[in-house]
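Dataset card, provenance and construction

Sequences and ligand SMILES were collected as paired inputs. For each pair, a complete structure of the chain with the small molecule in place was predicted and serialized as structure tokens. The example below shows a pair involving pyridoxal-5'-phosphate. Curators did not alter the output after generation; any descriptive sentences attached to a record were derived from the structure itself.
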Amino acid sequence: MIGPRERAAVADVLNGTVLVHGPRAVAFERAFEEWAGGGHAVAVGSCTAGLHLLNVELGLGPGDEVIVPAQTHVATAHAVEFTGAKPVFVDADVDTGNLDVDALADAITERTRAIVPVHFLGLPVDMDRIGEIASRHGLSVFEDAALAVGTRQRGVHAGLLGGAGVFSFYPVKHFTTGEGGMILTQDPKLAARLAKRRAFGVDRTVEKRDVPGHYDVTMLGYNYRMNELAAALGVEQLRRVPQFLERRRANFTALAEALAGVDDIRILATGGDSETHTSSHYCLSVVLSNELASARNTIVEAIGECGVGTSIYYPRPVPHMTYYRDKYGYSSASFPNAARISNRSIALPVGPHLDLNDMQYVAASLTAAIAKVR
Ligand SMILES: *Cc1c(COP(=O)(O)O)cnc(C)c1O
């Protein structure tokens, strides 16, 4: 999905004189704000780096707690761990895979500082209810919007639904910069601090230095910048995002229809789209029934033999990953809904590299694989 315009834009950077701290990263930020319909964008080296910066801005440290979903990428929790604070996990809603908002209030303690919900597979989590709970307890809300390019609630884009949100441009996400991420926030002061903190905490940008190489450092910062090669790729990829999303929606709808009559599978969060909620249709995840659950890996293998690439979102609930289990002592019986999704689901591709005929092929491959294990 890297086209001629992307290649030309990257070649331009290579033929020029500026590889970092240049106009492309700034242009990408402005273009992303325009795409999202508002906010202040800060380009970073990855979604993980952006999440870390937000947690640093909260001044988190040992003794603090941040609520995160059990069913997410490990980065959501790691970004809390980096600060010495403790991630507190909340189980998934079994129908959508999103954080179970009903279970959220039970996880809040005197030490809770923030909630970091994830729009699971691009389906918007109920940000209204999360916002209400957060404001009742005086907590910050940051969206892990890694899979949420195009995710909207009542027309408002992810990243603008809480205090800030972070997107990922890792190759398998909605569009790519190789590696990269973007923080989006409504708060211009926060954006300015994040822009400093992603570049060592230096007090002035390269253009603002009277004497070349002369600057002061006013905060503890990181090297979490996005380079010009990545940003050039991002600017060109972003132009294609409306078509990418349209294709994803059409593919998702066609695949869901083609699988509608198949017994013993359930499509996770089919109700992605409604009057108020717009999904980014990251993938179509099917959850196998009791009958088929133990055959999941055999089914995956059979689909793979048909040439269909699949994945699992996510392979284990984060608190069941060895690092978290060993550190905090979670049992494998905890977070049963998240575990059910991890153990029984197969994520099928609906990306813009595929068309409606491919969806028929994917559906036929899954149907045949299921027939084989019956
Ligand atoms: C992919 C992903 C991340 C990590 O993104 P990077 O850009 O690779 O750091 C974080 N959270 C979620 C939900 C993801 O899917």
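Derived descriptions for this record:
DSSP finds 13 helices and 13 strands in the chain.
Residues 46-48, 72-73, 75-76, 118, 144, 146-147, 168, 170, 181 surround pyridoxal-5'-phosphate (CB under 6 Å).
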